[in-house]
Amino acid sequence: MNDQDLDIAYTAICHALGEVGPENAQRFLAMLCLALMARSDSAGDVLPLIESVRARSVD
Fold it and tell me: What's the whole-model pTM score?
């Protein structure tokens, strides 16, 4: 994805989060992650991303 594609996708996620509301945001993000993971060829593609995001998500 190029920068413009990333911006379009990020904007779509932001709009969708606004539509589902805070009470459904966690479910939406979990379902989105699962759908995106299903497009990967193997766990080896996904596990480094999970670790990277986990590391950036803790204080």
Answer: 0.83
- The domain limits of the chain are 3-57
Q: Strand, coil or helix: what is 21?
A: coil
Sign of the alpha-carbon torsion through 28, 13, 38, 54: negative
* 1 within 8 A of 9, measured Cβ to Cβ: yes
d(CA 46, CA 41): 9
Spatial neighbors of 9 by CB under 8 A, at least 6 apart, are 1
Q: Which residues of the chain have pLDDT under 70?
A: none
